[in-house]
Amino acid sequence: MTAVLEIRNLHVSIDGKPILKGVNLTIRQGEIHALMGRNGSGKSTLAYALMGHPAYTVDEGQIIFDGQDVLEMEPDQRSRAGLFLAFQYPVAVPGVTLANFLRAAINARRKEANPEDKGISIQDFRRLLLGKMQMLKIDPSFAGRYLNDGFSGGEKKRAEILQLATLEPKIAILDETDSGLDIDALRVVAEGVNKLIGPNLGVLVITHYEQFLNYIKPQFVHVMYDGRIVEEGGFELAEKIQQEGYDWVAEKYAAA
Amino acid sequence: MTLRTRNKLIAPKLTREMVEQLSAAKNEPSWLLNARLTAWELYDTLNMPSLQSEAWRRTDYTTIRWEQAGRVVYGTSAGIEAIPAENLAPLIGDAQGGLIAAVDGKIVHSELSDALKAQGVIFCDFETAVCQHEELLRKHLMTTAVHPNEDKFAAMHAAFWTHGVFLYVPRGTVIELPLHSVFYNTTSGLSLGHVLVVLEEGAQVTYLHEYLSAEAPEHMAYIGMTELILGERANLRFVSLQDWARNANDIRHERARVAAGAQLDWIIGTMGGRFVKQFAEIELDGEGAFGRMSGLFFADGHQFFDHDTQQNHNAPHTTSDLLFKGALKDQARTVWQGMIKVLPHAQKTDGFQANRNLVLSPEARADSIPGLEIEANDVRCTHAATVGKLEDEPIFYLMSRGMTRQDAERLIVAGFFDPIMQRIPFEEVRARLTAHIEEKLERVAQPV
């Protein structure tokens, strides 16, 4: 059965300041969506709110995933249910290797499925991780490094994609995975994402540049302005923004 | 000093007759009795340390109930069977070259492999050493590393020591199998243990010592000494793991003397006890001497740990490297204070010290006080001290990958300790410490 993430009239505030003012968005497994908009329009707030960051307060609305009320779930439950957020600013966890971290994440999923599970064997894990690293053209030595600790911008983003590949979620939100990358790093990351895209993965790509979208080719494009999704269309909408920028969006909706 | 302060700093009532009784019970020769009596005079004369002094101003030993902990215990009916089997089994590797165990102040087991005996290695209790290796013991016991006049606790120890382990490795002897000793206590009262290690020139050994006790309703006090004496180019790897029950108070003077070209790798694990004050010092006496100290502690409940370290560079071209990492939860308190001293002629020395603390609850408190006293001008000395807490962002990040909050915290704590684990070259010691950390994280605080 195809999993569906449904966001209905979502209002979110930070420290009492409203950021999202009624977002409606539906993403199905297998679909690729792009969420575009200027800085400060609320894109990242949507991403964090979807994952349940404690600093973001949902004031109104619903998030339903696979028939479950996401707002009732802790971040770890959301993850185990099949949601994934690739962070714009991945957090360093000194002393914890990427491999140990991924193993703990996999074991958390296995334990959910079977409370008696003793965890993935070292051999199975090694095989799994090496396979994913090979697919994403990541050097195996990467697995032994402390998670995001001293990683370059490109390395952090590749590590996020490696996590996406390993954890195999149903819906992934890529929050400005393209930001801070030079053109070569951008291509590497985009190729990685493309390899993961398929009928079992729904993707919401958040970006304010179109470059990344040229690689990923979303079927649905949404434009956010002042906490709402104001324009929707196909890939041609991304092309329009590529040519004309966001000024026309601001002019059209500033009054609203 | 007001009368009130003096009354507060009350010392356990220990008499000259008690010294004579203990020495008689041990059948000691007159030189040893006289040494004890000299120390007793010192004990009787010295004041208890002032709580305003640098060593004690954060560390209030007056919480020790001497009416429970002040009675010298020299043996009970408990024997080696009181000690958990896992603490007698080899921890480092599959086999050990020797094992000595003491219970309640008395040696209950002592063995050393024939091969090591044939090499001239001595690994025995003090009573045996007094009979069979009198000259060697007399030469080194509290003469070179730790002296009875350090403070009142040292004098107490010198007058009343109950049990001791003597390890002597002759010149050029390299011991492959590690040696192991355990001090165990089952009762309240006063226990005064001693570890004396002498490595002659070029000798090499790995030695693991454990402190443990069974939970008892009243206070126990361990007033101990550790002396590590390394001859030229000797190599000692000393692992000291402490896991006392929560009724134990532990005041310990520990000092290593490291001669030219010798290498000391000293690992300290502090997990148990209610009150711990551990002086641990490295004297780098000869050119090219190297001393490394790696400390790992985790305090929970109402535990109080104070590690008071010194790295003394007394010769040119000496290197010291100290890292202490500790976690705290509940209402626990810890102190680390460290000093690097470099004498004027000790040029080209390299000293490093760092203490990092992770405070897991708002009621816990860690004090971290680094210090440098450098009298030479061509040296490299660095230090670092941090006290941090569990941050929200890494927890959210890990939870967003499916880990429960508890698992996320556990992973972050494990990550915090990883740099100190990397310095411990024994997998089994790392596993033991990791198990302690896990157990502490899950432990629910008990009322005092």
Provide a descriptive summary of the structure in words:
- The complex is a heterodimer of chains A (256) and B (448).
- Chain A has 256 residues and is α/β, with parallel strands linked by helices.
- Chain A contains nine helices and twelve strands.
- Chain A has a six-stranded mixed beta sheet, with helices on both faces. Chain A has a four-stranded antiparallel beta sheet with strand order 2-1-4-5. A two-stranded antiparallel ribbon of chain A has the order 7-8.
- In chain A, strand 11 and strand 12 form a beta hairpin.
- The longest helix of chain A is centred in the middle third of the chain and has 16 residues, at 98-113.
- Chain A is globular, with a radius of gyration of 18 Å.
- The N and C termini of chain A lie far apart (39 Å).
- The model of chain A has no long low-confidence stretch (mean pLDDT 94).
- In chain B, a hairpin with a 2-residue loop joins strand 1 (98-103) and strand 2 (106-112).
- Chain B has helices spanning 3-8, 16-25, 30-45, 66-69, 114-118, 126-132, 134-140, 152-160, 392-399, 405-421, 427-442, and strands at residues 98-103, 106-112, 122-125, 163-169, 179-185, 189-191, 193-199, 204-213, 220-230, 235-243, 248-258, 263-270, 275-284, 290-299, 304-313, 319-328, 333-342, 350-359, 365-374, 380-389.
- Chain B is globular.
- The model of chain B is unreliable at 1-7 (pLDDT under 50).
- A ten-stranded mixed beta sheet of chain B has the order 2-1-5-8-10-12-14-16-18-20. In chain B, strands 3, 4, 6, 7, 9, 11, 13, 15, 17 and 19 form a ten-stranded mixed beta sheet that branches.
- The A-B interface holds A 51-54, 74-76, 78-80, 84-85, 87, 90-96, 100-101, 104-105, 108-109, 112, 146, 163, 167 and B 392-394, 396-405, 407-408, 411-412, 414-419.
